[in-house]
Amino acid sequence: MTKTYRIGQIVPSSNVTMETEIPAMLTARQQIRPERFTFHSSRMRMKTVRKEELAAMDAESDRCALELSDAAVDVMGYACLVAIMSMGPGYHRESQQRLRQRTQENGKDTPVVSSAGALVDALQVIGAKRVVVVAPYMKPLTELVVDYIRQEGIEVLDYRALEIPDNLEVARHDPAKLPEIAATLDLSKADAIVLSACVQMPSLPAVAKVEALTGKPVVTAAIATTYAMLKSLELEPVVPGAGALLSGAY
Is residue 137 part of an annotated ligand binding site? Predict the structure, then answer.
């Protein structure tokens, strides 16, 4: 009998991309593996990507974890990388532990991953010690993200801040522009490219092209989160067309 897994996501209220890209990847996986998935979300209020608004939004994540545990999801992902990283070094560990505790208090014990933790873990999985980063945030927030990654022992050689403050505008950014943006970065010594350090900026359609053009593995926040969810479910982390991390090599 084919098993169906419930995928829970804690998302900013204005986020529309994680509920597109993660289902797209897991639906594509269904073509090559027997497991099936359904998708469930709870929302935290956020419209503008500013540090103060992100902190207020993060305070709502406990409620979201509780709501998703009511639905008995099999794994839940905190789908806002910058909200976690703007709270200070290593905060993804504290957040994941606290949110899992909320599910335990509700009679469940749901594994919790975060896009922030998933990204740094993914870079370690592929052995990337030096990376370049593309992010849609204003420069001060992008620098917080870069510093967070560096605190996890990964050198950021170069980065590009696209400086899009409105979260819905981030979702409208054309992923076809990403190969050209990646080409502006100094890739000479990079082990990998973080093509989207944001779960709201669409990137999945560009991943294969950037890998082909550069010869380097490409990771995004959404791809890393999908990998982390599959590993938490003890399922093979393989998705066709989703880059090196989900190729089955790791």
Answer: yes
